[in-house]
Design a protein that fits this description.
The chain has five helices and five strands, in the order ββαβαβααβα. By secondary structure, it is α/β, with parallel strands linked by helices. This is Anti-anti-sigma factor.
């Protein structure tokens, strides 16, 4: 039997953002983001994420494939948190690498939004009802 290794996701054009949605359980929407999250793409993320806030009690935004997180992206994440709070939804961030983790830490968003190193860790935590949902990554 011939098997192939998973292919890496191709990066979108610099002014585009790719967003893939998945609902692993009725309680969670997983949003995987690919590209740069900046002034040219933040509006697209806000629109896609805003549409998900009433679908489930938890929205996990996976920033693993985000290469750059600019101030507009940070502002968008903060606004999403405020919208989610108003709708009773909890936004969680998967931020595994320095290009995303550092701006989150410097802006204080890592203290406002539950943040972990992978979407899989967040999903596992959410699947275990007695684990705390809020985690902050250590500074590097």
């Amino acid at each position: 039997m011939l098997t192939t290794a998973p292919q890496p996701v191709a990066a979108p054009e610099p002014d585009q953002l790719e967003v893939r949605l998945h609902s692993p359980t009725p309680e969670v929407v997983l949003m995987r983001v690919n590209g740069d999250l900046d002034v040219t793409t933040a509006r697209a993320l806000a629109a896609r994420a805003g549409q998900q806030l009433l679908r489930a009690p938890h929205l996990v935004i996976d920033l693993t494939d985000v290469r750059f997180l600019g101030i507009r992206g940070l502002d968008t994440l903060r606004a999403l948190h405020e919208q989610a709070t108003a709708t009773g939804t909890q936004v969680h961030l998967a931020a595994p690498h320095h290009a995303v983790r550092r701006p989150l830490r410097l802006s204080g968003l890592d203290q406002l939004l539950p943040t972990d190193s992978s979407a899989e860790m967040i999903l596992a935590r959410l699947a275990t009802p007695h684990w705390p949902c809020s985690t902050t990554l250590p500074a590097r």
